[in-house]
Write a structure and sequence with these properties.
64% helix; alpha+beta; four-stranded antiparallel beta sheet; 758 residues; elongated; 3 domains
Length: 758
């Protein structure tokens, strides 16, 4: 009796027992894995909102900002003011409250002789109809109040509350949310609709969505995958072995991610089912190879033959997959980068498991269940597989040149449409259309002037440089240009602030802001603003008065349109301003331009690096530049299909959907590696090109079909995930895997075949 050379086959019990001890520790570590639903992870993918949030946070200088919206036809009435004041007062009693700003808790400058006083927007006591009307006109016309605190139609008002409060854990966030909601529920009436939004609450919403997906979607995916495996191998015992092996591996993966410093986020949550699915593809190749071994041999010999058949192609397939995932590691968006790095680690782990302890487990299982795991004879396999795969082989070779021409022609529409890809990194698209947060964001977008906020900085060459009439007039000219584009719902700047002060000084009620003409008057305004600690002063200038800010707001729009619009503003601003003024869009324009370009550049760069690395791996594997070229060209077909579909359906290209290309290429290469490696083996045994193809698909075809169906099933299951980008990822990757299957069964044989089949 020949003893296996693999220690995992010779001593399966020992190695599997050792692994179970290690796995127990890893599963225990898995229990420590937290769901990182920090909304900043989403904001990071959209630098417009990230920079805006950072700017607001620095201005507020507090840990938490909470926004309460009140919608009613009675905002500007006695009862409306009373309602707003009562809510503001109730919120003001919460622990950790720092400040509350609302119509009833905000102030405006009023001239008093040669100086200014700060008076409330809404005075206490009884108000006449005339006073209420004046407050309404002031609120919906004042550039620093309209669409910031009050909607332009006067039917929505916002209360902003800032806190210094420990919200570091989920329990603390939930307690804070319950406490706040209990307060606000007291003021919810048929007449006044009260809603709330805050980053800690968004975190809990995302966390709940995570848990839903993990509890319902992922197990369903697992059942579908097992069904596909069972249908392929037609054995309950196979399914049991696969299920146990898969459960052990899946249980350890979160622990490994935890120990390597990764957490579960909307981006890398895909890794767990994806890695589990890829592991099943390795198992499918192993089991298919076992089925095709001589059933008269003992199990050790059959496992040795299986290893000789699949180890090398599986190793190189794992390497190419790791290269594909690793290409994402150069992306500037950390979530994409972490996905790539964690994916590379995961591929190494599942390969080590599949050909290490997992192999020991299979050997134990086959030894224990040997009577129920009798494989079909080679003749039975051949008959079944011939009936399934002969037709595509014959078709591929019979119409060889037509197929090759089609394979190349598919790149033409892909190259034409690649410039039409919808690069869109809006963070709001990560939220479900049913999300409370998204609905409120969309309300703010449609009713409050938009959620896109960009800040353009105008830096002078000295402290106090912005307090010059010439500078203010130039800044006003830029602001007027932006307003005249009709694209912005509101524009306000440091010059607007001085215009407001000038109107107050002169008693001008026209609503048209005019700048002072006297340097002395301007100096009075500067001193008054500092003395009264006017809150908008710090929002529109720095402390040294060296830099002034222009704030632009617009409704939500695709990133590409947003970038084009803002680029025109920056170009115009640079022409208007004198040479001693530096124009830079620190909180929007440059970051958006850079983020959009980074996604495109990173993918182009990573694609080039990935293709070069994969080509080198395949050239080394087969010692043939020709075969490596064929494999690479045919594997690019799914990428072309993705480009066409993405352009046709305008799928947003963001930090999640951008990962599909790398995965599609990796999986497509895997099939190609297995087919060509076995094809060469058949040729080395004396078969001609076409006979070698037939035998290759008879042996490898079932595993490739099985793995493709597994991947397609996994992708389709993502359509029910809570995050729209993940759903887009699902159907795009499903399309890519279908294209990869067509490539493996039809296109690649056309390149490898040499003559017609009889």
């Amino acid at each position: 009796m020949i003893t296996s050379r693999s220690p995992f086959i010779r001593f399966p019990g020992i190695f599997f027992a050792i692994f179970l001890l290690v796995a127990g520790g890893l599963i225990w570590q898995s229990s420590k894995v937290s769901i990182d639903a920090d909304p900043m992870n989403l904001l990071e993918s959209d630098p417009r909102h990230l920079k805006t949030y950072e700017r607001i946070s620095s201005f507020l200088n507090d840990d938490t900002a909470l926004i309460i919206s009140i919608e009613s036809d009675l905002i500007f009435t006695k009862s409306g003011f009373e309602h707003i004041r009562n809510i503001s007062n109730a919120i003001n009693l919460q622990d950790g409250i720092v400040d509350v700003k609302s119509l009833t808790h905000s102030y405006k400058p009023v001239r008093k002789g040669l100086s200014f006083n700060m008076e409330p927007f809404v005075p206490n006591g009884k108000l006449t109809k005339k006073q209420i009307s004046e407050i309404r006109e002031f609120s919906i016309n004042h550039p620093l109040v309209r669409n910031i605190m009050v909607s332009s139609d006067g039917k929505i008002t916002l209360i902003t509350a800032t806190y210094k409060r420990d919200l570091s854990t989920s329990d603390l966030r939930r307690a804070f949310q319950r406490e706040t909601e209990d307060i606000l529920n007291q003021f919810q009436t048929p007449t006044f609709e009260v809603k709330i939004i805050a980053l800690p609450f968004i975190a809990e919403e995302l966390s709940g969505a995570f848990i839903h997906d993990i509890k319902y979607v992922l197990p369903t995916t697992g059942l579908c995958i097992l069904f596909i495996v069972g249908l392929t191998f037609r054995s309950i015992s196979y399914m049991v072995l696969l299920l146990i092996s898969e459960v052990i591996l899946t249980g350890t993966l979160p622990g490994i991610l935890y120990l390597t410093g990764f957490s579960l986020t909307p981006h890398n949550i895909l890794l767990l089912p994806l890695l589990s699915t890829i592991y099943l593809t390795l198992l499918a190749h192993q089991l298919t190879a076992l089925q095709n071994t001589d059933s008269t041999l003992d199990w050790d010999q059959r496992f040795d033959l299986m290893l000789k058949t699949v180890f090398r192609p599986c190793l190189f397939a794992a390497i190419t997959t790791a290269i594909g995932l690793g290409s994402l590691a150069i992306c500037e968006v950390s979530q994409v980068r972490n996905f790539g790095l964690a994916g590379m680690i995961g591929i190494g782990i599942i390969f080590a498991w599949a050909f290490g302890p997992g192999l020991s487990f299979l050997r134990l299982g086959f030894g224990f269940w040997a009577p129920s795991l009798k494989t079909k004879s080679n003749n039975q396999n051949k008959s079944y597989n011939e009936s399934l795969f002969t037709l595509p082989i014959k078709s591929a070779i019979k119409y060889r040149w037509i197929t090759i021409a089609f394979a190349f022609l598919i790149f033409v529409p892909a190259l034409i449409t690649v410039n039409k890809l919808n690069i869109d990194i809006r963070a709001i698209q990560f939220l479900s259309i049913e999300s409370h947060t998204r609905k409120m964001a969309e309300m703010i977008d449609s009713r409050m002037g938009g959620i896109n906020v960009v800040q353009i900085d105008f830096q002078t060459d000295k402290s106090g440089g912005i307090n010059q009439l010439q500078f203010l007039n130039k800044l006003q000219e830029v602001q007027n240009f932006a307003r005249d584009t009709k694209k912005f719902s509101s524009t306000y700047s440091y010059s607007s602030l001085m215009g407001i002060m000038n109107n107050v000084w002169n008693g001008d009620q026209s609503g048209k802001l005019t700048l002072p003409t006297s340097p002395l008057t301007l100096k009075i305004f500067v001193l008054a603003l500092k003395a009264t600690n006017y809150p908008f002063l710090e929002a529109l200038s720095d402390k040294s008065q060296k830099t002034a800010y222009l704030i632009l707001r617009t409704t939500d729009m695709p990133s590409k349109d947003f970038v084009t619009l803002l680029k025109s503003i920056e170009t115009k601003a640079s022409k208007i301003m004198p040479e001693n003024v530096t124009v830079s869009a620190q909180a929007g324009l440059h970051t958006v331009l850079q983020a959009d370009q980074d996604i495109v550049d990173a993918q182009l760069e990573s694609l080039g690096i990935t293709l070069a690395a994969i080509f080198a791996v395949m050239a080394i594997l087969w010692r043939s530049f020709k075969l490596a070229t064929i494999a690479l060209l045919t594997s690019l077909g799914p990428i072309a299909i993705l480009t066409i579909l993405g352009s046709l359906y305008q799928v947003p290209l963001n930090s999640v959907s951008v990962m599909v290309g790398a995965l599609a290429l990796s999986i497509g290469i895997d099939d190609t590696v297995h087919l060509i490696t076995h094809w060469l083996s058949m040729k080395s045994n004396g078969a001609n090109e076409n006979d070698a193809l037939t035998k290759t698909l008879e042996v490898k075809g079932p595993a490739i079909v099985c793995t493709s169906l597994i991947l397609i099933g996994f992708s389709v299951s993502l359509l029910w995930m809570s995050f729209p980008p993940v759903a887009h990822f699902g159907w795009l990757s499903a399309a890519a895997y279908i294209a990869a299957l067509v490539n493996a069964l039809w296109i690649l044989p056309s390149f490898l075949g040499k003559k017609r089949l009889s």
